[in-house]
Amino acid sequence: MTCNVICSSRTGNTALLAETVWETARELGWECAGPEKPRESGREDGDLIFAGFWTDKGDCSEEMASFLEGLEGKRVFLFGTAGFGGSQEYYERVLGRVKAHLAPSNRLAGTFMCQGKMPEAVGARFEAGLRQEPENEALKARLENFRQAMAHPDRRDLEALREAVKQALSAVSRS
Fold first, then answer.
1. Does the pTM exceed 0.70?
2. Integer CA distances (angstroms), 161 to 111, 143, 158, in order
3. How many CB atoms sit inside 10 A of residue 71's CB?
4. Which residues contact 35 (CB under 8 A, 6 or more apart)?
5. Of 13, 46, 121, 136, whose CB count within 10 A is highest?
6. pLDDT 10s digit of each residue in the chain, 175 long?
7. Dihedral, CA atoms, 163, 164, 168, 174, nearest 10 degrees?
């Protein structure tokens, strides 16, 4: 069986997930190409496409959206990272927007999302805002989320991804 790992990563978080997907598939005996960027891939064949994205304004990047919109009749596993969030409800909203880029002829083989660290400049913006508005609860919450995100993706995130990938590969192998 064959799979392709296509990944759009801005800060390296999603690239780390893509490497984990690739390693897991190879360990299970799958012939797996990638990870490659969507615009470079041209690899839309295979039994399963793993499409990794970073969250951009509650959706995937334009680059990944274009790639997903070009797929027809494929089995697709979506995985991504989000700097904000940390809650399953937020991840589900993001995944809903990303899934909307897939044509109805595609079949979803699974999904996975976790938090990812953000660039230091984001934290610096929150800190600067708090210096100007020390009682701003929304900024305090954003800065706390930023600090929590700095540890992600962590070992538990990667293990959870491995399990999700194993389940998807097993299901595709049986079908």
1. yes
2. 9, 26, 5
3. 18
4. 5, 6, 7, 15, 18, 19, 21, 22, 52
5. 13
6. 999 999 999 999 999 999 999 999 999 999 999 898 887 555 577 899 999 999 999 999 999 999 999 999 999 999 999 988 768 899 999 999 999 999 999 999 999 999 998 888 888 988 999 899 999 998 898 888 888 888 899 999 999 999 999 999 999 988 7
7. 40
**Rounded distance, CA 141 to CA 151, Å?**
17
Residue 13: both structure tokens together? 């978080």
Q: Are strands 31-36 and 48-54 parallel, antiparallel or unpaired?
A: unpaired
Q: The tokens of 87 are what?
A: 């809650």
Structure token digits, residue 173: 């192998």
Structure tokens at 19: 């490497």
Which residues, including other chains, have CB under 8 Å from residue 31's CB and lie 6 or more apart?
1, 2, 3
Tally of residues, the chain? 175
| CA terminus-to-terminus distance, the chain | 11
